[in-house]
Amino acid sequence: EVQLVESGGGLIQPGGSLRLSCAASGFTVSNNYMSWVRQAPGKGLEWVSVIYSGGRTYYADSVKGRFTISRDNSKNTLYLQMNSLRAEDTAVYYCARVSLTTNWYFDLWGRGTLVTVSS
Amino acid sequence: DIQMTQSPSTLSASVGDTVTITCRASQSISTWLAWYQQKPGKAPNLLIYKASSLESGVPSRFSGSGSGTEFTLTISSLQPDDSATYYCQQYNSYSTFGGGTKVEIK
Q: Is B98 helix (H, G, I), strand (E, B) or coil?
């Protein structure tokens, strides 16, 4: 079955760090563009980051310099390292597969993992 | 940055109605636009890409149109299962989502 399963969310204090994981099955992460999208409680969707199959990465201005997207090809897993976390980073974080055309729309989503930044 | 504005923010309609949601971009995005449906507690689900292309498996009562800066999502013959929030997304330059439109069934 083709699916994405996120993990690693939780409660973290402001200024702390957290690493999210997204395990893929049914397809190869390294052959696809992969992305993270987040949704603050009761709010809309916000694109966070993308990693190309060739390894190039891009970030939203709101997380640039604090978040790092990466992948482990041997584990077929996508990651999001989040440092210097702020209250406004509180959200459900979804990993998503960019369409096979490489146009940046998302044809497969995980269920999401909740990150709460609070003291 | 490209801003995406959706209207209305909420709409209420009856089963069988035709509803239209509008999405406006702050600058031209050609047809690099997608639409998603999200139900409470669930991940978004792709409905339309490239403004008017229907994703495989999506009912044909969903359709999209537009180009440049103005786009519409139309749901024909509204069904109870269509109660959800709908988001547009531009992917002409990085990616930006609209604020969402909540569709309620009367």
A: coil
SS3 A116: strand
Yes or no: say if B27 and B90 are a contact pair by the CB < 8 Å rule: no
Set of chain A residues whose Cβ sits within 8 Å of the Cβ of B48: none
Predicted pLDDT of residue A118: 97
Measured between beta carbons, the chain B residues lying within 8 angstroms of A94 are 43-44
Q: Quick check: A111 pLDDT over 90? A: yes
pLDDT of B27 strictly over 90: yes
Averaged pLDDT, B74-84: 97
- Across the interface, of B43, B45, B94, the residue whose CB is closest to A112 is B43
State how beta strands B10-13 and B101-105 pair. Answer: parallel
Give residue-wise pLDDT tens across range A85-95. 999 999 999 99
Question: Strand A106-109 and strand A113-117: pairing?
Answer: unpaired
CA-to-CA distance for B22 and B101, rounded, in angstroms?
A: 9
How far are the Cα atoms of A27, A50, A76, B32 from residue B20, in angstroms, in the given order?
35, 31, 40, 19
